[in-house]
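Quick log. Single chain, no ligands specified.
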Amino acid sequence: MTKVNFYEKADDKLLKFAVIIARTEGKWVFCKHKERDTYEVPGGHREEGERILDTAKRELYEETGAIDFDMAPVCVYSVIAEDNFNGEESFGMLYYADIRSFEQELHSEIEKIIITEHLVDNWTYPLIQPRLLEEAKRRGYL
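-> predicted structure:
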């Protein structure tokens, strides 16, 4: 079973990853990993000594090629899942980004991005990512 929780804030040292709901010109931006047939929102793990906002900016750039964007924090979230961090609660920061321009080349394990008017059906993390979008909508970001 997977459980997703939302928080206003958490101790910074608990934040292990950043995930970014990204849009451009009113359309969704999703990533396809080279080793999967599914889609996901950009995001990734925090590097040692990195501020969580810098993690979000770096991951957005690496996974989408975004070079000009506005970004805002949405909330802290956590995931509890048996196959994730040995079933212990893991924390991340959810951001929203409005992308104005992209570089042509991707700098990560992402094969391609898609820009679409509609949400994808084949999520990489179907028990987590739709919940993040619902929460961002509930908080007025979408």
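The longest strand covers residues 66-81.
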